[in-house]
Amino acid sequence: MMNTVDIDWKNLGFNYIKTDQRYISYWKAGSWDEGTLSEDNQVHISEGSTALHYGQTVFEGMKAYRTKDGSINLFRADQNAERMQRSCRRLMMPTIPTDVFIEAVRKVVKANEKYIPPYGTGGSLYLRPYMIGIGDNIGVKPAEEYLFSIFCMPVGAYFKGGLTPSNFVVSDYDRAAGNGTGAAKVGGNYGGSLLPGAEAHKRNFSDAIYLDPTTHTKIEEVGAANFFGITEDNKFVTPLSPSILPSITKYSLLYLASERLGLDVVEREVFIDRLDEFKEAGACGTAAVISPIGGIQYKEEFHVFYSETETGPVTKKLYDELTGIQYGDIEAPEGWIIKV
Ligand code: PLP
Ligand code: COI
Prior knowledge:
This protein is an alpha+beta fold. It is 21% helix and 30% strand.
């Protein structure tokens, strides 16, 4: 039986809401414990935790969706498990096996089932797996103890307006170093993005766009989302760079654009002074879903793509296909949906 909670499902933003249970597991003496669900949303860790001083912290972002028939879908959860393993290796942290990760996600979703936004409201249950180095440390070296946890909360649109286009500004700051940690989902990348993000917001833009750190001529990321553009001759293009986070949504769209919409798709360089090659553009990610980009401010110039107020037709088709699969209305490519 589903209990109900008093939440205004249609007006959810992207804000912390405390839910009932979270998964907690500790790594000590070279292995993970069994893991438990806990009602306590506070974390009690040593002042010497490497997560606090040296940024030994990785995280993931994924969602559970309520379908029309009342079942619950996870979207490509194995991909989040694998990316987290890669992030952990980059920061010399232990990894969580994919099956353990997915089983923990299942437990958290089930334990908080009443917080999953009902089908048709446009909301979903956002899951935040994370791992941090803990224990008594002071030297700059990997911790010997770790905490892995997954918590969740209902969310709506990440960029205000959802499928309404919004505008972005190219930042002078770099998000990541050329051979740094840009491709890993590690806390430090986001700490460094707070100031550029705040400066963008102050100028009334949705977020900052980051260029490649070496030449500052190519688009890398749109805030905490990947960029895509649709060219005048209907190609789906996303940037290719070693310092971009490999977005699971982006790879899904590359497949869907090609296999379901019949577009040519390509990962390649996207030059900031060639925005006129795109008739539509957008940001994609778990939180962002597909957020159309109205225009981009680059130095003194403001470039408008399809429209500042309306979503372009290809972007809309991609959005319908992606969300249709996530909410179970459209048949998913094999292996993309895991039932809770
Ligand atoms: N880029 C950055 C910097 C992100 O934080 C995210 C969010 O996870 C993405 C892109 C999108 O990745 P995904 O589609 O796997 O959520
Ligand atoms: C996500 O899309 O899951 C993200 O990680 C974005 C974010 C809120 C950091």
